[in-house]
Every structure is written in C-alpha cells, then in structure tokens.
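Homework help board

Subject: predicted structure for assignment chain

Our instructor gave us this sequence and asked us to write out the predicted structure in token form, then describe one feature. I got the tokens but I'm not sure how to describe them. Can anyone check?
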Amino acid sequence: EKGVPDPGYQAIASLIVPQLKPIVLLSDLLDRGADPIIYQLFLADLIITYAIQDGKRLSYLTEAQLTRWGVSEYAVHEQAIINLRQRSADVPYQVTGSGSQQLVIFNHNDGLDAARILLPGMLVQATRSIPGEILIGIPNRDFMIMFSDDDPDRVSAVALQITRDMRQQPHGLSEKLFTDRKSTRLNSSHANISYAVFCLKK
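My token output:
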C-alpha cells in the first residue's frame, strides 16, 4: 500500500494465502486504477489470487511487489499452498448422511473454505466414504460442499442450492460443479448442469 513501509517478502511469507475470485475482478481493478495483482487462471471464470491475510484483513499481492522483492509467482503460489495446508490441518468439517446421500461441508468462515479446493489430498481424505464420482460446489468464498453423483435427484437439488447461494451470499464464486473427471451421469442425466473438470490427485 502507498505510504506504508514495505516489510519485505520474508516478513509476510507466512501470511500469504490463495484466494479464488471471479475473473471480473481484474477488470474492476483496472477500472479503479489499482496496481495489477498477480493471479493464475483456474476454472469456470475463476482465478487464483494471492493475499496477505492478517486477521480479517486481506491485501492482494501485486506485480510491483514481486518485482521489488525479486520473488517469482511460482514461489508465491508454493508458499500460499503451504500456508493453506497448515491453516487447514485442524479445520473441522461437517459430514451428513451416508452412502450416495452423504454431504461433506467446509464452512469454517475463515475466508479459506472455497480455497481448500486447492488441497486435493485433503479432499480425497474427506470424501473417502462417498461412492461414485465426487462433485464439488464452491458457491461462495466461505462454503465448499462435496457429494456423490450417484443420485440424480440429489445432484439436481444440491446444484440448485449452489446456484442460489452463489447469487445471494456475499463473496459469490461459481454455480458450476467441479469434478476430477468427466462424469457419465452428468453427461447423460444433467445436461442443464454446468460443471468443470480439474485434477483431484494427491
């Protein structure tokens, strides 16, 4: 920030976290004349940004800061994932139902719930008892839900709620369902549901 002494990268490295944001954030920042932030493309019109999280406050890292520090975007990403993993080690999550009706929900409200989609090992562990293909919803920053594609009616109901939450809750992200492979059930039974494929491996 202008007028604030720069503490240097090493002083803030442990505070860096990844944040998923809609890609329209980039044009919003440009319109406001803000410094360009660093980011990576994710999926479904989302980007991964990087921020210094100090309590409830987030300060997004900019290209100018990385240039000044002599640090690469790759190094920042790696550090952010390490910090996210550490902050997620003891985070509780809710499990309701069983079998194809089971839901796994992250709603810790620490500003990192949706970002935990970037921790595949954690997701695999949390969903180990869910049958079928795993579907993931991140309607807003503070909510992530995982469930099975086994029950078409269940998928439709959860997808509808995800769409509502994305549009109504603060910090909306995506109405898409994320999965680690193309689901034949989604292709055949849910042509109206939009989903994105990403890599979910340890």
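Reply (TA_rk): Your tokens look well-formed. For the description, you could write something like this. Confidence is low (pLDDT under 50) at residues 182-195. That's the kind of observation they're looking for.
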